[in-house]
Amino acid sequence: MQIVDLAQSNVRTLNQRLHDLPRDTNERAWRILNPRGAHAVAVGLNLAVEIHVEGHVGYYCAGMNKEATVVIHGQCGWGVGENIMSGLVRVTGNASQAAGASGHGGMVVIEGDAGPRCGISMKGVDIVVGGSIGNFSAFMAQAGNLVVCGDAGDALGDSLYEADLYVQGKVASLGADCVEKKMTPKDAKTVAALLAKAGIKADVARFRHYGSARKLYHFHVDHADAY
Amino acid sequence: MPTKRPHSAKSAKSRAAKSARPAKAAATGPSAKIGPIDPNLLRPSAAFPPQVIAEIHRAADQGLYEIRGFGTKRKLPTFDDLLLLGASVSRYPLEGYREKCDTNVVLGTRFAKKPIELKIPITVAGMSFGSLSANAKESIGRACTAMGTSSTTGDGGMTEEERRASKTLVYQVLPSRYGLNPDDLRRCDAIEVVIGQGAKPGGGGMLLGQKISPRVAKMRTLPQGIDQRSASRHPDWTGPDDLTIKLQELREITDWEKPIYVKIGATRTYFDTQLAVKAGADVIVLDGMQGGTGATQDVFIEHVGIPTLPALRLAVDALMELDMHRKVQLIVSGGIRSGADVAKALAMGADAVSIGSAVLVALGCNRPVHVEEYRALGTEPGFCHHCHTGRCPVGVTTQDEKLQARLDPERGGRWLRNYLSTLTLELQTMARACGKTHVLNLEPEDLVALTVEAAAMARVPLAGTKWIPGQGGY
Question: Which of A61, B141, B156, B339 is deepest in the core (most CB within 10 A)?
Answer without folding.
Answer: A61
